Input
Amino acid sequence: MTALLTAYVLMWPVLVLGVLIAIAWGFYKDAAEAKREGRQII
Output
C-alpha cells in the first residue's frame, strides 16, 4: 500500500514537468517562427 501511495504522490511532479516542457516547447517554436518572419511575438 505504501508503494502505491508513494507512486501516486510522485506521479504528479512528473506530469507537471511534462506539461511545462510542452508549453515551453510550443513557445520556443512560436518565437523561432516569429523571428524567421521578422515579426514580434506579442
Notes: The chain has one helix and no strands.
